[in-house]
Amino acid sequence: MSALELLTWARGDGLAIALAICAFGILLRLFEIFSLGRKADLSRPRETSPGSGWRTIFSRSLPPPGLLKRSPVTYIGGYVFHIGFALTLFFFVPHIELVRGLTGLSWPGLPMQVVDIAAVAAILALFAVLASRLTNPVKRYLSGFQDYLAWLLTLLPLLTGYLAFHHVVADYTLMLALHVLSVELLLVALPFTKLFHTVSVFVSRWYNGDIFGRKGVAS
Amino acid sequence: MSATYERGMNAFKEVLDAPIASFFSSCVHCGLCAEACLFYTETGDPQYTPIHKLEPLRRAWQQEYTLLGKLARLTGLAKPVTDAELAEWSPLVYDSCTLCGRCSVVCPVGNDITYMVRKMREGMSAAGHAPEGLVMATTRAIQSGSPAGVKWVTVQAQIKHVEAEFGFKVPVNLENADYLVLMSSWEILNYPEYLGAVGRILNKAGATWTLAEDAYEATNSGIQIGASDLARELVGRIVNAAERLKVKCVISPECGHAYTAIRWEGPNLMGRPFGFEVKHILEVLDDLRREGRLKLKGTLDTPLTYHDPCQISRRGGVYEQPRTLLNQLAPQFKEMSDSGVMNWCCGGGGGVSANERAEPLRMTVFKKKKAQIEELGVKTMVTACANCRVVMEEALEHYHMDVEMLGLTELVAEHLDES
Predict the structure, then answer these.
(1) What is the CATH number of domain B304-414?
(2) Minimal CA–CA distance to B254: which of B338, B191, B314, B345?
(3) Assuming Cys at both sites, which of A58, A93, A139, B36 could form a disulfide with B106, CB separation 3.0 to 4.6 Å?
(4) CATH class label, B5-130
């Protein structure tokens, strides 16, 4: 199979299969969560609780008092990675072109230089949080195979994309094929690893805000 | 029914719900919950990381309620939780968690870890892995009416004492009163001033109130040990008395988890909303103040601080009321570095103070509160939970610290304008 054939497969059948598994997986995992149900809370809520679940979805993105100081790498590394990754994923012009080709939807992209900085920042942040995971006693204690696998699967699309874009490796077609394949691996793993927090974080934050909110505590 | 491994695992299956499934799904092992937990910050031991305390429950969820987990179990890739593991987790679930809820307000993905520990204890106690001290306290509560074995005759003796000292009659089993007053064992045994203080304040406010002979104890060991059937029995005594006497409002005393038990868990344990209100004494004091029925005179001119009981502030939403009162009563009231919803626990909540096995650890983690007090340099600390007070008085003694503890209700009563 030539590099071009590999790229063709990756962009065609490969992508379709990966997207199907990802979509099915997300639906399955959401069904697994919601089918467990939740008993109605019969205690009388305080008057100030409406909307607290929705507020917490946003407010939990900010560090609570004192925590930034206790764990700066987790917060700063986390912000830089998530923002860098999102900018690269959604505002790199070729990515927007791909979405437009598939769905007809499009939006303005960011200049290449900006995306370049975002991607490098995200890669560096990933190494910083990995170093933290290996050296911080709590993170090291909590971490298992899945934590390192998730890290690798997140790094690969950024790294291969960066290498392909900068033509660092001679065979651009092969690099691009590897990039697309790494994205597909990420898509397949997303519902079934801790990467699923991408989706479930909205659910868990909502529940937290709702539970605290009915007691009159902003969380 | 006797405690068995099977009962424990069944209880795990029963408590697992959509919020818990979403919490376990969202955890990214970032470790921030440890930074919020005084059992980790004061020991540096990563086994005290809050989310780690839930590992057996997480595995039970994964193997029972997720497709991949089920497959892993069927193919032998994942091993079921064993009874030995539950035993191993007992100190993590009971000794090193006070259900203070600080991890739950810090977790970046929004996991209410405390909610899960509370639920996990249902399985742990059903499997027979609750600590002996808590089992005994719960047994005493069910049999004698109080975890400390306090009987109605002891309360009667205190009533006589209050009546002699303040010259008013303590109403017992009075129907249609505004308030049903409850106490915690600690208030009956260690802080008898509470009953006198509440009586004076309510009388002065022109409110009607009563004690109930069959429901004087507000604490609830059932929710600490994680046995909903026993918790229901204990809270049911209060509900029955409140309904029989047709009171308008039940006052939860200066006790943290009693408030959680009656105010938040109570209706869910009973399976129906209450026809009466449940308020913490601080809420009642603040209501009376706003209505102009609580007039105070004089101030306490000593530098002092307020220790937020976790179940009252972070888990209960009562954090402004004590501050309104203290700002009026104590011109030199100062806040600790982390206060209100971000307060640090005394180290003895959630049943830890009843668990003798946990005592050395409890003393170690008090270093957090010690540092907070020393940073502020005050010699007086006010609180609104008799359990916090007992735990901290013991720890202050242990560390040879010259700090006096006061109950807020008592402080208010001392400054009542009697004119």
Answers:
(1) 3.40.50
(2) B191
(3) B36
(4) mainly alpha
